[in-house]
């Protein structure tokens, strides 16, 4: 059994990756202390789980252990890189398999406990649906593209007068040849979206500059706006597609709600059970 001052290497590594996405050796001293605290707490909780009555009879098969081992091994390009990583974290293959067996057993016990959680019923699903309408409503969105000519008095082509002239020349061309929008955006637009033909993607209200927002959401599909001014400069915007608002029905939302609520019940059941477990006797 791990004594009070030691920390099991795999638990330490797992905590470091969870908190900082780094191995323990890459951490600063303050980060390492934080990881050590979490690792000790996790190991102590796992000990309580494994000493519980619920753990009796739980056995991890060779197939399950092999699956867990291959999942870890698969994160590395080759065997040498894998073994080097183990060595850098004070581990070897046997130690890793022992730690994975422990982790799999803890997970199996927790799943056994979670299975006691009550099942979600239709009334609860209905209450959740009507209490959280925002979760099941998709607002109207629009696919759009634009052309920007910025205003910058330091450059002759971007003085207010020059920018106004340029954007109106572009708009004139678009009125005659709307199919040229992407080509004109690529050639003239001073927004990074120019390389995508001016496409800004699918947007909801409140995503763009307020001036563009107001114009876009009043355009018909395929329509091109007049010149719009924002703090960035002059724009011409086109509405490519209107995706109507949609509210998901209770019937369609039921599987999602059931999963959300059942997961919540399972976690609550596990937390209550963990809180009831006695501390591990370290002197044993």
UniProtKB/TrEMBL annotation:
A Pfam family recorded for this sequence: Rotamase
Catalyses which reaction(s): [protein]-peptidylproline (omega=180) = [protein]-peptidylproline (omega=0)
Protein origin, superkingdom: Bacteria
Annotated PpiC domain residues: 139-241
Keyword Isomerase: yes
Gene3D superfamilies on file: 3.10.50.40
EC number(s) from the headed UniProt entry: 5.2.1.8
Swiss-Prot/TrEMBL keywords: Isomerase, Rotamase
Listed InterPro entries: Nitrogen_fix_NifM, PPIase_dom_sf, PPIase_PpiC, PPIase_PpiC_CS, PrsA_foldase, Trigger_fact/SurA_dom_sf
Similarity section: Belongs to the PpiC/parvulin rotamase family.
Name of the protein in question: peptidylprolyl isomerase
Annotated source species: Methylomonas defluvii
Protein encoded by which gene: nifM
């Amino acid at each position: 059994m791990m004594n009070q001052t030691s920390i099991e290497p795999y638990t330490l590594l797992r905590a470091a990756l969870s908190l900082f996405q780094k191995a323990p050796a890459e951490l600063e001293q303050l980060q390492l202390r934080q990881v050590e605290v979490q690792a000790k707490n996790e190991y102590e909780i796992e000990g309580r789980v494994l000493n519980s009555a619920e753990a009796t009879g739980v056995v991890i098969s060779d197939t399950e252990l092999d699956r867990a081992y291959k999942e870890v091994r698969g994160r590395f390009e080759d065997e040498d890189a894998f073994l080097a990583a183990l060595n850098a974290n004070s581990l070897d293959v046997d130690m890793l398999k022992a730690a994975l067996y422990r982790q799999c057993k803890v997970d199996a016990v927790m799943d056994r406990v979670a299975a006691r959680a009550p099942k979600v019923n239709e009334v609860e699903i209905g209450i959740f649906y009507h209490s959280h309408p925002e979760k099941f409503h998709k607002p109207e969105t629009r696919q759009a593209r634009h052309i920007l000519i910025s205003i910058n008095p330091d450059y002759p082509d971007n003085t207010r007068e020059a920018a106004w002239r340029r954007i109106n020349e572009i708009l004139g061309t678009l009125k005659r040849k709307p199919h040229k929008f992407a080509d004109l955006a690529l050639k003239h637009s001073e927004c990074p979206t120019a390389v995508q033909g001016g496409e800004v993607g699918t947007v909801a209200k409140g995503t763009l500059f307020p001036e563009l927002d107001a114009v876009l959401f009043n355009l018909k599909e395929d329509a091109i706006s007049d010149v719009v001014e924002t703090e960035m400069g002059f724009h011409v915007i086109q509405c490519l597609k209107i995706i109507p608002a949609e509210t998901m029905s209770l019937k369609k939302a039921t599987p999602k709600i059931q999963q959300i609520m059942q997961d919540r019940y399972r976690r609550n059941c596990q937390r209550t059970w963990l809180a009831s477990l006695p501390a591990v006797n370290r002197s044993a």
